[in-house]
Amino acid sequence: MKERLRSHGLKTVCEEATCPNLGSCFREGVATVMVLGRICTRACPFCDVDHGKPSPPDLDEPARLAALVKETGVRFLVVTSVDRDDLPDGGAGHFRDIVKTLRREIPGLGIEILVPDFRRSLDLSLSLLRNIEIDVFNHNLETVPSLYSIVRPGADYRHSLRLLSRFSSENPGIPVKSGIMVGLGEAAPDVREVLSDLRDSGVTIVTIGQYLPPSLSHLPVSRYVHPDEFLAMGEEARQMGFSVVESGPLVRSSYHAEKLLKAQEDTFLLTYRERSI
Ligand code: SF4
Q1: What order of strands is seen across the sheet that includes strand 110-114?
Q2: Where do the structural domains in the chain lie, given as residue ranges?
Q3: Is 114 in the pocket of ligand 1 (CB under 6 A)?
Q4: What whole-number distance in Å separates Cα of residue 5 and Cα of residue 253?
Q5: Which pLDDT value is given to residue 65?
Q6: What percent of the chain is predicted at pLDDT more than 90?
Q7: Which residues make beta-bridge pairs with 136?
Q8: Is domain 2-276 in CATH 3.20.20.70, yes or no?
Q9: pLDDT tens profile 187-227
Q10: SS3 for 251?
């Protein structure tokens, strides 16, 4: 998979962010590709992505991505990007073009987009993404509001909730997903507050995973959360009405992305069937 990615000049966040699940996902034909370059305009101290002045979007990227998918037989693709505060639309137009190309070239492909926060262009970015033909819309809150200034200094908690809530209401029928890391110093009531805010913002799929520093120069881990606590948080999230929850030490936002969508569809069908009896 790595060779083919390179031959198409593509990068995965799996590799850039040193994800522990890379092996199993690649084997399952699931990958998270990073578009809009490798240079982010932000510098979140937990993240292993390079920061600085990005180059302009590569207009051939949609076609190269479609060629990679056809060649590798990937069934479910997660498309993500760095933050592009330098672009008037934050990169939303490029996401739209990529999805259009993938839909035209590989109609049956499962597509999830994991987007940045479009902090400087929310209205424009959302208008460019309206009615986009995706299976899942994802934007990570990453952590609890009290830790934003440390963990996500360039972002705003309320703004990210607004992005999720507006996409959900403006694109009914597309499941909305978000995720957080724990082990950064948050307390259980903080996590409960975030889960409740996500439900109020129309989010139905949530992931909760352990923060693991990519290197010693990144934000230190505050604690390793016990697997039983992940189970408890997961159960609490289900009680709050999330239709799909993935909570565990090695869980990452795109981990089992295809399975989570299927679970959401099954839950929906089940509810639909229950409702129609
Ligand atoms: S915005 Fe995203 S890609 Fe950029 S530094 Fe933060 S987490 Fe990493």
Answers
A1: 11-12, 30-35, 76-81, 110-114, 136-138, 176-182, 205-210, 244-247
A2: 2-276
A3: no
A4: 21
A5: 93
A6: 73
A7: 112
A8: yes
A9: 999 999 999 999 999 999 999 999 999 899 999 999 999 99
A10: coil
